[in-house]
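Case study 2.
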Amino acid sequence: MNKSELIEALATHKDFSFKKSEEVINTIFESMTRALVSGQRIEIRGFGSFVVKDYKPYTGRNPKTGDPINVKQKKLPFFKVGKELKEKVDS
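Prediction:
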């Protein structure tokens, strides 16, 4: 499911206009993005949680040539699936 399909599902399920559904979904994603950028953790019970993980710099390898390359320090969002979602997907 992509973002437009999610907007369409909300519009259909809740009888919202497409425009209103788009505003709701965009507001949710913008709020989640702001929280992660500011270092906050997002937890949606029964679904999962999002955190930002810090990765230290390391020496990697170019897959084509095998030459060593320096990979800079970075921060990336990480999703951990919740127990209820894991059980539903696995059943």
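Residues 1-38 form one domain.
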